[in-house]
Design brief:
With 191 residues, the protein is of the alpha+beta class. The protein is built from two helices and twelve strands. The strands form three sheets. A five-stranded antiparallel β-sheet has the order 1-3-10-6-7, with no helix packed on it. A four-stranded antiparallel β-sheet has the order 2-11-5-8, with no helix packed on it. The protein has one domain: Galactose-binding domain-like (Jelly Rolls, Sandwich), CATH 2.60.120. The structure holds calcium ion (3 copies).
């Protein structure tokens, strides 16, 4: 009886620890780069404004700026329905092209995000992209609309989030090495 109670308490603590520590990881964690070429507006907040939960503090991405952000303690997964929620602050019809990547090098177009109201939530389903998960997101500004020129990115939430999936190239390399090794062994056995 005592053992069972202890077991239940332990299991429950592990469950609580698991959910609480994981709940904090659904947001973007890191700014990789913010390219602001000559001629683009450099006013407004820095790119870290896009990290963490919605707080009405945003980074404005105007044309021809490019912002690359990363998940580092979680990955956004292609689960049931929509997988990403992009929060835009303003109500100025600003747009940005959104791309996703697993390794930060190969990009797949996800959607053209459009601000349609105050605090627009743009929902993205990864299913049509063919990417099973993304670790990186890239935003390309396509206009200068609004008081703070461009697309006002406040936060990105992974609606389907899971433990961080490492860069596939590493897995592929390991995998091909293993296949090569097995092939070599087979050859030696035949000979
Ligand atoms: Ca995170
Ligand atoms: Ca999905
Ligand atoms: Ca923010």
């Amino acid at each position: 009886m005592k053992k069972t109670t202890l077991g239940v308490v332990l299991l429950f603590s592990v469950f609580l620890l698991g959910t609480s520590s994981f709940a904090a990881t659904v947001w973007l964690d890191q700014v990789i780069s913010f390219d602001q070429p000559t001629g683009s507006s450099t006013s407004g907040n820095g790119p870290t404004a896009a990290l963490g939960p919605d707080d009405n503090i945003y980074v404005s991405i105007d044309i021809p700026e490019t912002l690359i952000l990363a998940f580092t303690d979680n990955s956004a997964l292609d689960g049931t329905g929509n997988d990403l929620r992009v929060r835009e602050f303003g109500n100025d019809d600003s747009q940005a092209s959104v791309y996703g990547s697993r390794n930060g090098a190969d990009w797949t177009f996800l959607t053209t995000a459009t601000s349609t109201s105050d605090q627009t939530d743009i929902l993205i389903d990864l299913q049509s992209s063919g990417l099973g998960y993304v670790n990186y997101l890239k935003f390309e500004g396509i206009d200068n609309k609004g008081t703070s020129a461009g697309f006002d990115l406040d936060a990105v939430e992974a609606l389907n989030s899971g433990p961080y999936v490492p860069i596939p190239s590493t897995i592929l390399l390991l995998g091909s090495g293993l296949i090569g090794f097995i092939g070599l062994r087979r050859r030696f056995r035949k000979g």
